[in-house]
Write a structure and sequence with these properties.
- With 144 residues, the chain is α+β, with helices and mostly antiparallel strands.
- Strands 1, 2, 3 and 4 form a 4-stranded mixed sheet that branches.
- The radius of gyration is 26 Å and the shape is elongated.
- Strand 2 and strand 3 form a beta hairpin.
- The longest helix has 20 residues.
- The protein has 5 helices and 4 strands.
- Helix 2 packs across helix 4.
Length: 144
Amino acid sequence: MSVEEKVLNTNIDKDGNIAISNDVIATIAAIAAKSIDGVYGMVNSLTGGFAELLGKKNPSKGVKVTVNDRDVKIDMFVVVEYGVKIPDVAWEIQGKTKNEVEAMTGLNVTAVNVNIEGVNTVAAEPETVAEPVEEIDEEATTEE
């Protein structure tokens, strides 16, 4: 019996259902997106901003999840790094998010909508460039 069959068999229960919170799905999706090169971060939602002010961390910020039976639709709001190819990053977010959520929850991801909300343009601090200094030949300037 494969590992996948063992997981599926342990989830089958005659007397009840397994419920996965939307917050759990959103957290999985956010972690998957943040792990991709070129993603600067996720946009705070209104409630996420208030939670951070109150000292609570919201690992699922920037993700909206809609579940209908076993189908999941995910909307993501991301900020990318300046200089990346935005379509490539968006496609990678879609693929990785879909794979991670389906693998961890067993649900069917029908859509991953990626909304690029901004581009991080803050560059590293510029290096200071020293002005060239003319060397003075002391022997030539001294009068004998």
